[in-house]
Amino acid sequence: MASFRGFSVVMTMVLTVVLGGCCVGGHGVVIGPTEELGICASAVTIYGYKCQEIQVTTKDGYILSVQRISEGRRGNGGKSKKQPVIIQHGVLVDGVTWLLNSPEQNLPMILADDGYDVWIANTRGTRFSRRHTTLNPTDQAFWNWSWDELVLYDLPAVFDHVFQQTSQKIHYVGHSLGTLIVLASLSEGKLVNQLHSVAFLSPIAYLSHMTTPIGVLAARSLLPEKVYGLLGIAEFNPKGKEVGELLKVWCTHPGVNCYDLLSAFTGHNCCLNSSTVELFLKNEPQSTSTKNMVHLAQTVRSGVLAKYNYGRTDYNLMHYGEINPPLYNLSNIPHDLAIFISYGGRDALSDVKDVNRLLDHFKLHDVDKFAVQFIQNYAHADYIMGVDANNIVYNSVISFFKKHGSV
Ligand SMILES: *[C@@H]1O[C@H](CO)[C@@H](O)[C@H](O)[C@H]1NC(C)=O
Ligand SMILES: *[C@@H]1O[C@H](CO)[C@@H](O)[C@H](O)[C@H]1NC(C)=O
Ligand SMILES: *[C@@H]1O[C@H](CO)[C@@H](O)[C@H](O)[C@H]1NC(C)=O
Q1: Which pLDDT band holds residue 338 (cuts at 50, 70, 90)?
Q2: Could you name the active-site residues (predicted)?
Q3: Which among 28, 85, 243, 311 counts the fewest CB atoms within 10 Å?
């Protein structure tokens, strides 16, 4: 696409901001209106959709923001009992990323127009989910979590809320980390009773073959010691000074092209619109916790799906009663759960080899309940922002939901 040139220019700008550590305040908030208005008013209702800002509190006190798009542009189309869909973003971004393309192109609005009751989740620590019943983002304890806590608290909080409000089984769409946390949860026997079906886009479980150069470097250097040392139990703010320093070091390595950070992280996305990318960069990246990044780095290095490793035998013993962190065993996922998986041939984070290893776990899955789509020229970000993702991916997701929607 012709957008690639504009793309690198934008990337250079981002890099300047990131590396220079200038301009942006502590929380990396860049644009004004969205901040005041919230996601519904700034990105959804302007197109004629009904959208409600909702707050869901986790058992460990985080107040998460969720957007419910309960009606499409054509009203509710006479459907009284709509099926709910939860849409979960990946790491270092928030729910806004789903909404950057036109209503005809983005997943939440397509689902709403198709008569689904859509719920967009925003993980703890991202721009609209930075509140807690007792803690502040400036407290260390606010950032004392990894993706284990997203499995243990964030997901169940959102699922329970949607289930209570709708009294209906739920369809789920996850991208990237949004797939990993559900896989982990299902492997522990959770969520199954609340689910109609699950769609995994750019699935992540194993990360050993990840090809993104900057990701590989990050995985090598983000050790548990960082949580106690340099970075501390703290916010991992991609636009902050500390992370900027790290990026500076990583960017000097041969083979790392920091002039195109989005590609450096996600692979060569085939189908992004440069205007959408610009919008993306105004809204993202978002913060997560250092501990979460360290846990992801462990997932890359260890080649297994396990709980957070404290990096010290005594700490692991104290937290788990075992020397090694317990594994999430994907073989426990019920064989009759409806699962759709779509993965791309150019995805630098969700490498084809790693996805194949994940697919191995589903060899015994009911064939009627399992669908796999492979898109040769897709990379990681195409799944959320690709101009043709509507025709290529989302239509397939919706067909799958229709097939597996009745009880
Ligand atoms: C972080 O949480 C662990 C429990 O998972 C606790 O042992 C530790 O004291 C906490 N640290 C901080 C700074 O809150
Ligand atoms: C790219 O985005 C711009 C601005 O939203 C829009 O006018 C244009 O039609 C988009 N192009 C494609 C191919 O979707
Ligand atoms: C995972 O679970 C399966 C059965 O659900 C079991 O056969 C296998 O031994 C388990 N693997 C590990 C590593 O615990």
Answers
A1: very high
A2: 176 (nucleophile), 347 (charge relay system), 380 (charge relay system)
A3: 311
